[in-house]
Design brief:
Two copies of one chain form a homodimer.
Chain A: E1 9-10, E2 20-22, H1 46-49, H2 55-62, E3 68-70, H3 73-79, E4 87-89, H4 91-97, E5 102-107, H5 118-130, E6 135-140, H6 144-156, E7 159-165, H7 166-171, H8 173-181, E8 185-189, H9 195-203, H10 211-224, E9 228-230, H11 237-256, E10 263-267, H12 272-286, E11 293-299, H13 304-307, E12 309-314, E13 323-328, H14 350-357, E14 362-366, H15 368-382, H16 388-407, E15 412-417, H17 425-432, H18 443-450
Parallel strand pairs in A: 5-15, 6-7, 6-9, 7-8, 10-11, 10-15, 11-14
Antiparallel strand pairs in A: 1-4, 2-3, 4-5, 12-13
Helix pairs in contact in A: 3-5, 5-6, 6-8, 9-10, 11-12, 15-16
Chain lengths: 458, 458
Amino acid sequence: MRNESIPYKIYLSESEMPTAWYNLRADMKNKPAPLLNPGTHQPMQAEELAGVFCDELVKQELDNDTAYFDIPEEIRDFYKMFRPSPLIRAYRLEEKLGTPAKIYYKFEGNNTSGSHKLNSAIAQAYYAKKQGLKGVTTETGAGQWGTALSMACAYLDLDCKVYMVKCSYEQKPFRREVMRTYGASVTPSPSMETEVGKKILAEHPGTTGSLGCAISEAVEKAVTSEGYRYVLGSVLSQVLLHQSVIGLEAKTALDKYGIKPDIIIGCAGGGSNLGGLIAPFMGEKLRGEADYRFIAVEPASCPSLTRGVYAYDFCDTGMVCPLAKMYTLGSDFIPSANHAGGLRYHGMSSVLSQLYDDGLMEAVSVKQSEVFEAAEYFARTEGILPAPESSHAIRTAIDEAVKCKETGEEKTILFGLTGTGYFDMVAYEKFHDGKMEDYIPTDAELKISRDKLPKIDV
Amino acid sequence: MRNESIPYKIYLSESEMPTAWYNLRADMKNKPAPLLNPGTHQPMQAEELAGVFCDELVKQELDNDTAYFDIPEEIRDFYKMFRPSPLIRAYRLEEKLGTPAKIYYKFEGNNTSGSHKLNSAIAQAYYAKKQGLKGVTTETGAGQWGTALSMACAYLDLDCKVYMVKCSYEQKPFRREVMRTYGASVTPSPSMETEVGKKILAEHPGTTGSLGCAISEAVEKAVTSEGYRYVLGSVLSQVLLHQSVIGLEAKTALDKYGIKPDIIIGCAGGGSNLGGLIAPFMGEKLRGEADYRFIAVEPASCPSLTRGVYAYDFCDTGMVCPLAKMYTLGSDFIPSANHAGGLRYHGMSSVLSQLYDDGLMEAVSVKQSEVFEAAEYFARTEGILPAPESSHAIRTAIDEAVKCKETGEEKTILFGLTGTGYFDMVAYEKFHDGKMEDYIPTDAELKISRDKLPKIDV
């Protein structure tokens, strides 16, 4: 039933936008485990990280105590291009499902990069620019992060070198062209441009690449190029910090109308969107001010939280990055080729891993055919064509709303709609043509990569 | 210089949304010429049109006197999914150009259909549903209209049959898949499904189709199927009526901050966006209440206003549609295959044609390489990846802003940014690779199709 006092879209005014990011780690009793030097297995120091990341981002990465970081005015100005993002009441979806649940989604796809990745991309590019750097390097898989970073770099006249997983480079030429439109150089990975790329190509001549391999190349390129640093679109604590803008806005908008969500749902690959969306709500829970159910949704084909182990692991294939403690499937794990739905990183943000390990958050995994079914249903009812990644959250939101229908409970559900699916039509086509297969790794398969986890004594 | 009292984006609240469309024809002294029966050359009567269009839309099409048509509540509810659309102050573009001009754009790409076409799609689908019809038929070229209509029909559980120009069907499989996601059936045109399609295929076995041919098929399908009507995304007066929501919102937002544009710019293919954007401003001009410069921007490769003739012409290739008086290149005219920038219809809305003929509006034509140059420049500064169609308006807005730089004039420019370019990356790729060619038809070439104009005595 339409409640006229609550608009279809809740937009905040510019003056209601957050002026500081919220650092969830400050309220965590059990802090996330520190990054370790892959050689010494000692916690990484700021000086060691400074060769890879900008100084300000190193500070943000290592700071587990400061609750709020001011958002620089220049970044807030950029945010105004697409923020505050709308919080939408899914009246139509509720009606079609016949559920008494009230469903809200925070839509982060209303910028040309098409996803929430831009929130952190502009921050990372800004600090690089401020430090007087020439440019940044990064990797991209499906292309959302590379697109967002290219856009941010164009805005700041910063050079942007993207290593794109080779199979994506070939299968998603349009993603590549968007990045080029924004002025980025895009290299298929593995490439002959880096030592690690050459090594991987020598060992696996026919490889079509992986995210872990592209990360290794981008990091090597950054540390060996004068005036460059590496930037990453997920997993890191600094990224979750920047993405807190999603949750802060959502909370302000809900508070404005006196709405308290019962369940908060986000898709989870590396954890950037989920960590950002839940941040201020989880903060309340950690401080004992309120309670919420949090649900991380991951693909059944890449189930790091639900079937991984909580351990130190490599972040990349070339093992040039620090070690991170996280729920992981092992850095060797690569989801089946038929997996089309994004969220294919082998590990999960250390912050979210710790929260999950502490029982503060739930996790579920969903099959991709069910994800696309939810995506299409959502497109036809709410009008937005969702990214496969985002559709994981839609799937679970629908499932929870259907449970409410069965029990008659009027729960309030909030989920993150992270982006649009314009560049994922090949996957949609497979789904329409009945050619989409589900893949769930067997325990034996998972054991192979798990057995290769580094042995760390901490 | 950033004026803090004017936000980057001006959003209206839901309560500020227009509740009625504005019918510009009511204020025109010289009314647009009537549609003619192609057999008798007499003005089309409502009864004749009722086989093709829904009753309510026939009324809107023929009514040159009623100034306002109430927007039904159901359509206003749908509009709330993506409207009010933002009016954006291009602070960043102004700064980069170093112009004293103040540039605003009304962004209509912030819905999943990706363009302004949805404004009329939902209206036409709504009236079809209300009349108890089973479905609608239409044609689509680049795919913006087909996408919008599919989305509207999904919302209303209405069947949607789209005839897609064959070369687009093959070159733009992703557009096709978006329409399928929304549940539409998409047929490459010409097809063997219609008599006119069979005839065209027999005469031109290797043809890759044209907009005019797809229109003929869609109309035939509608009039020969029980419970179906035909709908069209541009050219018609009813479409301009629905699209007036763009101009009405823009005007409300500008008035709110006491801003009066000097120049209003829109791209022009069939005229739907331009006619909608300028409607309330042109109304003021017609009533002598205010003055504005209006500029229609068309591709140099399909220059109906700047190089066409004002005459009665066929709207389609199969000549099954009524005749319309318009600036036209002749219904046989097909822009060069290397033209990538949309806006490829041979004629222009009768309303806009009349206004242009009366000297109330200017028109310019621009080359596509210059259009893509402006598009890329805009993407890198304003962050939005524009559709090639929209980029025609960007090109001219930039040109006018640069003139202001030369003269020092602080003019206020408003232009329509009709959509996003996610599905146009093949064209962007050509541009990046330096493979984009410009094509300007010679006078001799234009003469060929012009000589085939029907001879009408009115």
